[in-house]
Amino acid sequence: MARGTYATINLDALVYNFLQVKHLSPRSKHVAVIKADAYGNGAIPVAKALTPYTNMFAVAFLEEAIALREAGITLPILVLQGPYAYQELENTKTLNLHWVLHTETQLAWFSEYLSHSDIQGHQWVKVDSGMHRLGLPMNEFDDLMRRYPTVMSNKCVIMTHLAAADEDDQTQTNIQINSFLSKVSASDFALSIANSAGAIALPKARQNFNRIGISTYGSTPFCSDRQITLRPVMTLSAPIIAVREIPKGDTVGYGMTWQATKPTTIATVAIGYADGYPRHAQNGTPAVLHNRRISLVGRVSMDMITYDISNVENVKIGDMVELWGNQLPINEIASYVGTIGYELMTRVSKRVPRKYIHAKEKT
Ligand SMILES: Cc1ncc(COP(=O)(O)O)c(C=O)c1O
Fold it and tell me: Can you tell me whether residue 87 is helix, strand or coil?
């Protein structure tokens, strides 16, 4: 008999979210970003579900692309960090890969590769418009175009990445977009700027290709509400494996960090930091049991968490607790633990089985 701890992944919600964002840019093509095992949701089932709706997929590095090909995914795959070595380019044709080239070394490798290959249009050139993480310096763009004419031909896509598209104040983002467009839009290049936040909130960021990640998985990138409804995709749930009454004054868990101020009913739930639930979650972090909010008490341990369930009636061993998902937005838990939905999702560990369902099925 299985432990009963699951991440349930709603594939209908996933497709719904992707289409919501896609429909905002009817003239753009879309890249579904499925790196890091589709942000923890499972790259292969996610890729299969999105194949009819996306133009291509994006992963971070070659091995993630190979795993998709081995699973029979056939759409083009964009490799966001580009080749780490020249030899990786030899997979371009056989695996139908598109590469983000963000250093001059990568431009030189690709130029060399093109000199003995018949492929066309498999290169995206990344320009640093202000994020200062990856990308060629904007002021070297014209010079690089002259020096790498076969790479930076009208067959390539020129891209940049926005540093703060999810912020309410878009001053900096507008500066980034305007400086990028003023540099590249006079040429004949296809362009790509938008991530989820850009595609949702910034019409000027919607160019030939949008690269959509987090919104597909149902987590808004914004701190405040926007005119888009996303449905939760991942619901993390685990069963109660013990229930006990403790008197006023007793403590719960390692380090005795929580003390009962009144007689309290404590439920122990079969999930912990080894499953990806953050250990630093504090007393008071919510979960849901029988449609009611309950509060975490005591430290999260490796395989278990304890909750005060005094406000819930008729609780039995085996009843399921929702850690986040359908009834509790992942971003709410993220704000309790000082992180973002991206990190919570991607950290759900391998020992938590993913159950794939469609919307009408019960989670
Ligand atoms: C270069 C690039 N484009 C697009 C995305 C997708 O961003 P988001 O998940 O915010 O939609 C990412 C994600 O980190 C990225 O690194």
Answer: helix
Query: What is the chain's Cα-based Rg?
Result: 23
- Residue 360 has a pLDDT of 53
> Nearest Cα to 71, choosing from 92, 55, 57?
57
Q: Which helix (H) or strand (E) holds 263?
A: none
Give the model confidence (pLDDT) of 171-200 as tens digits. Answer: 999 999 999 999 998 788 999 999 999 999
pLDDT, tens digit (0-9, with 9 covering 90-100), for 326-362: 999 999 999 999 999 999 999 999 999 999 998 554 4
The enclosing H or E element of 292 equals strand 292-296
CA dihedral over 310, 315, 321, 325, signed as positive or negative:
negative
Tell which one of 128, 211, 230, 330 to mutate to probe ligand 1, the residue whose CB is within 8 A of the most ligand atoms.
211
Q: How far apart are CA 211 and CA 187, in angstroms?
A: 21
Nearest-angstrom CA–CA distance, 238 and 300: 14
